[in-house]
Amino acid sequence: MSIPHTRQSTERLLTPGEVASLFRVDPKTVTRWATAGRIGSIRTPGGHRRFRESEVQALLATLTTEASTADAR
Amino acid sequence: MSIPHTRQSTERLLTPGEVASLFRVDPKTVTRWATAGRIGSIRTPGGHRRFRESEVQALLATLTTEASTADAR
DNA sequence: CTTCAATGGGGTAATTGGGGGA
DNA sequence: TTTGTCCCAATTACCCCATTGA
To answer: CA-CA distance, B56 to B62, in Å (whole number)?
Structure first.
């Protein structure tokens, strides 16, 4: 258990557009991921979303499939 | 109930720029939040704004949504 | 007193959100 | 089922320069 403290001032946040660029998708798609709960988000008081860079990187790594590292080089 | 524990010694004040960094927005945006009454602010005699760290942290926590722990593909 | 980064105010461009449909 | 696109309204970002704060 133990709920992790939300005390990370060094946590870099990304805009929807930046995340969209990383995944090569439309910003709207990123919005849907957030709505569907596939990725955590931080909303500004105005309603716009920001995403944790570490979480985005982790998601990218999770969805990344590498080819066998047989002797490729 | 009233709260006699007014620990202002622990009450740090943040500048617009610091709050902006936490939300990954422009300092001007934080100013608009204060003007719109979305966040409480303290004005210096010169007109500059300062924000209560506890209030900012609380607001940040409220607007934060964690990703679903279940991996639905 | 001098310096200089940060802030406020105003105005304008860019991004985002939400609904709906392809 | 997921994504991209069009609509419009709201929010946010960047430009100017005078003032404040340290």
So the answer is: 10
